[in-house]
């Protein structure tokens, strides 16, 4: 795959899907995958034992990425979106490491939390009831 296997894999994935994506979507995903690849290359410098080729990634490489995102303070939503981009590349390569990680280590996968909206106030409930009583039918 060359000196930068994640960049090459991301490029191949993007080219394979170019016809299915709007130009703006293509540009945004390509930019995000480049940023992810750059950061992973930095992680590989910090820990040279990480597998550089995403086709051979295991839970270890994915955990390193996720822990880096947490350490850098990325929001859960950003982590989830970035993980989706990584998952797409890994699926394209036929690597099921992320699926295995989701099954064996679900606590490590970022999930956004559903935040329930505020309830109606008593005044608002009264207004709704009055409005419905005035309806005929």
Model description:
The chain has 137 residues and is an all-alpha fold. Helix content is 65%, strand content 0%. Helix 1 runs antiparallel to helix 2. The model has no long low-confidence stretch (mean pLDDT 93).
Describe the structure concisely for a colleague:
With 137 residues, the chain is mostly helical.
Secondary-structure blueprint:
Blueprint: H1 5-17, H2 23-46, H3 59-72, H4 76-93, H5 97-104, H6 122-133
Helix pairs in contact: 1-2
Please state the average pLDDT score: 93
Fraction of helical residues: 55-70%
Task: Please indicate the percent range of residues in DSSP E strands (runs of 2 or more).
Answer: under 5%
Ranges with pLDDT <50 over ≥5 residues? none
Could you spell the SSE succession in H and E letters?
HHHHHH
In DSSP terms, counting alpha (H) and pi (I) runs of 4 or more, how many helices?
Answer: 6
- Main pleated sheet: none
Give the end-to-end Cα distance, rounded to a whole number of Å. Answer: 70 Å
| Global geometry | elongated
Task: Give the strand tally.
Answer: 0
Estimated radius of gyration = 22 Å
- Based on secondary structure, the structural category is mainly alpha
